[in-house]
User: Fold this.
Amino acid sequence: QLEDLLFAWKVAKFVKSNAIVFCKDGMTMGVGAGQMSRLDSARIASIKAGHAGLALAGTAVASDAFFPFRDGLDVVVDAGATCVIQPGGSMRDDEVIAAANERGVAMVLTGVRHFRH
Assistant:
């Protein structure tokens, strides 16, 4: 999982914000980008993976900026993510971390944003 998290994090660095990147086994599985809403980026990444016939179960997800609410985390976990890497720094980090714990998802906080406009 750690290798996939780090790979997803590298990919997210080069994706237009709000970036959500699903990866598994060293492959990019779904990318959502350029949306005004992180939720929409997460949904688009999931839809694109589905259109390509890729299953997202067991994927690692990178977000280029923090999850401001738990709903973005819930979308990626519902799609199949089992671990997430994100910068953190939201006023609601505690709620998002609690949601990850509640859902049984590993979460890495980097303290570094890749946010690109």
Q: What stands out?
A: Residues 2-109 form a domain with the Cytidine Deaminase; domain 2 fold (CATH 3.40.140.20). The CA atoms of residues 95 and 107 lie 13 Å apart.
